[in-house]
Amino acid sequence: MKLLPLHNHQDNDKIIAIVCNKRAGKGNAIAVLAHLQEKLLQINISHSVFDNDLPENFDRFSAVWLVGGDGTVNFFINRFPHTRIPIALFKGGTGNDFAWKLYADKTIDEYLEIVLHTSAKKVDGGICNGRYFINGVGIGFDGEVVKAMGANRILSGHIAYLLTVLKKIFFYREKEMIIQTDKRSWNEKLFMLTVANGCRYGGGFLVAPQANINDGELDIVLIKKISRLLRLFYLPKVEKGKHTHLSIVEIDRAKRIEIRSPEILYGHLDGELMQADEFMIEILPQKFLFLY
After folding, report:
1. Spatial separation of the C-alpha atoms in residues 244 and 251, rounded to whole Å
2. End-to-end CA distance of the chain
3. Which of the listed residues 129, 143, 172, 187 has the most CB atoms within 10 Å of its CB?
4. 153 falls in which pLDDT band (50, 70, 90)?
5. Residue 4 lies in a domain
6. 172 CB-near residues (< 8 Å, 6+ apart)
């Protein structure tokens, strides 16, 4: 791998806080942390590393670098929801879907260069049942998949997600949902409902390919009732983001959405499992600052 040269910094008054989830990515986060520390030492930028012993705030730092996956950034924004310190996210998890939205498929050194030289940009967040999210909320089938993955101790990331999808896809039954947005209301039996800020889920499924993280709205992707035989046929289309024109798919945008059901539904918040019979979701425009 060809590494980009890191510029020598003259403004070495920067102090970086690195928050590393050392359990993320089955050791990958630890390797990323070591690489970042080596680079920062080379260019003489001060930094402090935190794992469990987080400070009350990060006000003395010029930026917070998160090393982990979607769960790590979800944990951080819920622990420090009102921080105005610029955040960078380094891919140390297994899915890394929001990091992909920010940095695509760049190498760690390529987006380290970006993080060191760019200005912070405002990014929308969201809130669901009192908990903050950055990438999105999934209710229905993908919630069941996340629940099932909780028992998986061997595989992780996109492969684990895909295998769990294949295991569950023929036996899942659609759930009745009563949906109300700031524009309309209706009820329907749905295979899954995604409320998206980012566009990718499950380590590589482009569920909401047109989602924008700073447009002040949430993308709503509804996948309706699908015959069991067609589910496997449609799966690769969803993975590649080629499903938006299908008759079983409906896409909308809203600032606020309420989902109710006569039964408890499983869902996920940035990949973190949740369950409820009522989901109150709202966009938080320009809530966070990210370096990308």
Report:
1. 7
2. 22
3. 143
4. very low
5. no
6. 141, 144, 191
